[in-house]
């Protein structure tokens, strides 16, 4: 038991140091017993430096996709290699099962696999570790000739129905910066942009969805009408190089808000997208929002510099 008179800190200070909400911290203590703070005579919690270090380690593990319910003292002390291998095997097993279900057009197995993942992990982790890799794998199978368009569409419709229902029933908000979101011209798979839009609400953004195969020349006017702070485009595969070189460049020059591109093409065409003046987001949802926030921060700093001239 820590001595309250030596280097002990109240819960609000610990929250500020670790980024963990006080309510969340109290829940972790009660439910998972990872730490046990000392109590003052009035019942207030106090935490030692060692306990704060443990909480920092817990946050690091959460950032790596490990759920709080599966964090133990072995992981906290750094013995995470075995767990990482088990996690990789777990996700590979689900991806393999889902791929087989798609090949057999078996919605029952598809549903049970999806629900198994959601019973253990948040939708953000399931998105990054299962759904996005599935979209990539199916696209690659189709390109190699191992899969069919029918299989890809089967999974796309399943995912769109799942995500569309969640998007429809989400809690509406009338605050937060608006993002105009759409699929690139020729892109008919909207699962990626739906996944992004659902996560956007959890990150404080409002999303205006324009759907598939969106003409880029329509977007500058839509930005003005919707008062959007940025444009987010989704593209899995781009076969027409002029789409990036000419159309995307023209869009960037025709609007005064940042233009972001996500999906597999933002990885394979990373340099071309940057040369066009847009921001490639990559495939990971969480990293995408970090890049968007950084871009908005830079844009704000530039506007201050211009105003001071």
From TrEMBL:
UniProt xrefs under PANTHER family: HTH-TYPE TRANSCRIPTIONAL REGULATOR MLRA-RELATED, REDOX-CYCLING DRUG-SENSING TRANSCRIPTIONAL ACTIVATOR SOXR
Domain B12-binding: start-end pairs: 176-303
InterPro entries per record: Cbl-bd_cap, Cobalamin-bd, Cobalamin-bd_sf, DNA-bd_dom_put_sf, MerR-type_HTH_dom, MerR_fam, Meth_synthase_dom
Entry's Gene Ontology molecular function annotations: cobalamin binding; DNA binding; DNA-binding transcription factor activity; metal ion binding
Domain HTH merR-type: 8-77
Keyword Ion transport in annotation: no
Source organism: Methylovorus glucosotrophus (strain SIP3-4)
Record keyword NAD present: no
Keyword tags: DNA-binding, Transcription, Transcription regulation
Record's protein name: Transcriptional regulator, MerR family
């Amino acid at each position: 038991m820590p001595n309250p008179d030596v280097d002990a800190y109240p819960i609000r200070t610990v929250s500020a140091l670790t980024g963990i909400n006080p309510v969340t911290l109290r829940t972790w203590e009660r439910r998972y017993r990872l730490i046990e703070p000392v109590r003052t005579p009035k019942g207030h919690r106090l935490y030692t430096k060692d306990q704060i270090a443990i909480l920092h380690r817990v946050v690091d593990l959460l950032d790596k996709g490990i759920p709080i319910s599966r964090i133990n003292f072995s992981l906290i002390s750094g013995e995470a290699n075995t767990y990482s291998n088990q996690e990789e095997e777990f996700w590979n097993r689900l991806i393999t099962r889902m791929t087989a279900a798609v090949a057999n057009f078996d919605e029952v197995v598809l549903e049970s696999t999806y629900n198994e993942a959601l019973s253990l992990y948040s939708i953000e982790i399931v998105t990054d570790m299962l759904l996005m890799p599935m979209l990539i794998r199916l696209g690659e199978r189709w390109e190699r000739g191992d899969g069919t368009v029918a299989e890809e569409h089967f999974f796309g419709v399943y995912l769109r129905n799942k995500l569309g229902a969640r998007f429809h029933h989400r809690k509406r908000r009338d605050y937060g910066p608006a993002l105009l979101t759409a699929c690139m011209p020729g892109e008919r798979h909207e699962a990626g942009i739906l996944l992004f839009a659902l996560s956007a609400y959890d990150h404080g953004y409002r999303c205006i969805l324009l759907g598939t195969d969106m003409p880029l020349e329509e977007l500058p006017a839509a930005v003005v009408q919707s008062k959007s702070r940025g444009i987010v485009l989704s593209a899995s595969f781009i076969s027409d190089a002029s789409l990036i070189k000419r159309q995307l460049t023209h869009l960037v020059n025709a609007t005064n808000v940042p233009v972001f591109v996500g999906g597999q093409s933002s990885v394979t065409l990373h340099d071309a997208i940057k040369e066009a003046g847009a921001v490639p987001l990559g495939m990971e949802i969480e990293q995408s929002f970090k890049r968007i926030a950084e871009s908005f921060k830079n844009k704000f700093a530039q506007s201050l510099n211009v105003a001071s001239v």
